[in-house]
């Protein structure tokens, strides 16, 4: 509460406080020091119209007036006073004067009464008096080293108790401390463990305009107590007023209610402070634990590196010993051979020196053979080292060193998703995957990246990027095993991959006719396995399977065949034309057939006419060999014509075109 009872100008406890219109208080003496003059005859823009009507200080305009040039100035904070407020020397109160609140910087003009026009805050004065009484004497000096003696003074600015020797030594009344206010020693109510005295009944306040008349009413408009004379002929006569006692009780009730709300907030603040203090302890403990974990992780890395170093040194030692052994063995072998050769050479030279022809010829043949044999022992490579001095070992530490340099704390990226195996499945050449995140990351997940390989263990490629946790991938190869993995990402970065799941597509393609891509005249029945048409024109329908790899065979049965139409059977891309015969555009490869003969057709080109047609009950087979990139047609299990088309590349779907004279039923499909 000390701060509430100190003047914002002098920094000391309030003495004769007056209440400004902005509800802030200053000492009466301090108010005299912060009065400023306004130009003669000019009403400042911050002039008040009444005790409760005042404007904000126009700081820009006030700064135009020079204190040295015109004898008046503006209020600005500074370091010239104990509380950072510029204090003006006492001056005469002129007619055109104003005062600026040192806290909110609101300015108000003085009327002819001067500072007497502001009411004295008798309540604050009483509280300050009780507060001073509550601070008992016999306070010890706070600067004595041993055996503190009773304090004789207290500095209100420093808030320190001094005995006389300590005050003269540490707080002299000169220099920058000369302006500090020294008062008789008092004791803090908290330190002294005493409560402030109970408020005593005081004399009722009197009106500032009518000194002998007590306040009895309260002006609602001006928000100030008034006397009866003010109501009879004063400026409050036309204002709304209420009895002083009633308003006193009402405002006390309002203040109590407001204090209840503030009390709740103070309670929350205390709990929050406890939480913060507990957090300090937790941070300290977590920091120690994290440091220990970091040291353990680094020690583990060092230990692993030490073990690996020992293994590598063992390899180097083995390589060195091996090379030394090979070289030593080669030295021993070469030395022995050289000694034998040198001895033989010396013996032969001695034989050559002899002059006995018959004796020489007796041994010359054997010597020649020995010399030749010895020469043959020094074949190419015999005088070359079997090993080199260089070690055939290479240790590349750059990646590891770079990793160590980049070793840092990972950001709050999402954790690795968990693939939900019970929801992952395949159908034909489509695969459905589902996943979830086990723990909620600190940063929200923005999306996922699903990756599949090529079905042969090759490189991964992205097949889906988005926020969904379920994805179906179509157009895969039949009879193939795909590796799939998923990772999450957010604003911080990309998280680690999930575990890999293997999904195997169907060995045999199973398909029905696709109503979504069929022409509107096409009619599908029997769970989309039977197709007919409402139009006399040819209409195209595709199967639900797509082929891009392997060998596939399927059959279609002619359930109805009237008036000798020519339906077409074959394969097509998904964007083939649906309102004409199959094979008339460049996106379909087909055989169209009537009751007597057939033709192959692609891009409206008719080729390979063959005898033999179809009738009701006939079966038409299509063999799509994407390993050889060919299509072959069969009628009633017999190959019809040569290989129809070659060099097929891409993704193909079963296709048929019929009119209303034909009905076709899908029979079977298999992988050859």
UniProtKB/TrEMBL annotation:
Residues 136-185, 202-244 form the B box-type domain. Keywords: Coiled coil, Cytoplasm, Cytoskeleton, Metal-binding, Repeat, Ubl conjugation pathway, Zinc, Zinc-finger. GO terms for molecular function: zinc ion binding. SUPFAM superfamilies: B-box zinc-binding domain (SSF57845), Concanavalin A-like lectins/glucanases (SSF49899), Fibronectin type III (SSF49265), RING/U-box (SSF57850). It is found in: Cytoplasm, Cytoskeleton. Residues 352-410 form the COS domain. Residues 414-508 form the Fibronectin type-III domain. Residues 7-47 form the RING-type domain. It holds the Pfam family zf-B_box. It comes from the Eukaryota. PANTHER family: E3 UBIQUITIN-PROTEIN LIGASE TRIM36-RELATED, TRIPARTITE MOTIF-CONTAINING PROTEIN 67. This is Tripartite motif containing 67. It comes from Oncorhynchus kisutch. The lineage of its organism: Eukaryota, Metazoa, Chordata, Craniata, Vertebrata. The gene is TRIM67.
